[in-house]
Amino acid sequence: MNEYLSPEVDKRFAKHKEASMSENPTSSVAGSRSVVDLALTAYLKGKSDARSSARIDPIFKEIAINQMKLFLFSGHDTTSSTVCYVLYLLSIYPTILSRLREEHEKVFGSSPSQVSTPISQCPHLLNKLPYTTAVIKESMRLFPAASTTRSGEPGFKITDSRNGLKYPAEPGTLIWLVSHACQRDPASWPRATQFLPERWLAKEGDELFPKQGAWRPFEHGPRSCIGKELSMLELKIVICLTARRFEISAAYDKLDAAMDARRMSDKVRTVNGERAYQVGKGEP
Fold first, then answer.
1. What is the predicted pLDDT for the residue at 51?
2. With contact defined as beta carbons under 8 Å apart, do 131 and 197 qualify?
């Protein structure tokens, strides 16, 4: 990956240098909002001798490449995992799938095969999909793609809101925020195990209105995932391109038949009544 990204960063650096020395820059980097272009723009502004240098600072280049890999790999995993669960849930909730398709037809027109054209011409249309967004967020509530950890700090304590008990979290303590548990907690989520996209369309005061801070697939605060907007955008595009063109159905009958043939039917398991579930260390 480094062998591919390194020359790409060099090419962008050369274009940025050219643009920075031109009074009327017309290159592709002018006004670009891509991650690498934003980083290089800040680098050239903050380093006085960067424009006259023939090569990019190697330390900055290494950091930039590492961040690009983070976007590529982390974003891919989040998107691919969530797409699987969105399509799975839509396959077992036909009423929700029907409503989602109606929204897509209203926004993009009646031809499922031509969705890419209006998206390319008017990307802002992706902001007019409240139900699609609700389906994605509800899928990520039930099946979050990842969780995160935090390191303890001197004098830091975690307070149990139920009884006020304080737990010390000194340096050396690793705090794991388990999104899967938080987002299925009945104390925060009425009908917690049900797939209810409408909870994301509920008004404040409604029983289903999500509590602040209870949805954590991307975490919160200054350490929240920097790729969350990219991930949500990718998910919307994939769902828009597939939801009306394909009929998705589970193939567990074929799986069960294969398992029976190998005398492994006793291995069939469910979690919360679902055949699809997330695992840790290979066990549910």
1. 57
2. yes
- In whole angstroms, give the CA distance from residue 245 to residue 241: 7
User: What is the rounded distance in angstroms from the CA atom of residue 279 to the CA atom of residue 24?
Assistant: 55
Orientation of helix 94-108 relative to helix 58-92, angle to 10° = 120
- Band the pLDDT of 224: cuts 50, 70, 90: confident
Please compute the mean of the pLDDT values over residues 88-117 and round it to a whole number. 96
> What is the per-residue pLDDT for 284?
38
DSSP letter for each residue of the chain: -HHHHHHHHHHHHHHHHHHHT-SS--STTTT--SHHHHHHHHHHHH-TTTTT-SS--HHHHHHHHHHHHHHHHHHHHHHHHHHHHHHHHHHH-HHHHHHHHHHHHHHH-S-GGGTHHHHHH-GGGGGG-HHHHHHHHHHHHHS-S--EEEE--TT-EEE-TTT--EEE--TT-EEEE-HHHHTT-TTTSTTTTS--GGGGTPPTTSTTSPPTT---TT--GGGS-TTHHHHHHHHHHHHHHHTTT------HHHHHHHHHHTT-GGG---BTTBSS---BTTB-
* pLDDT at residue 22 is higher than 80: no
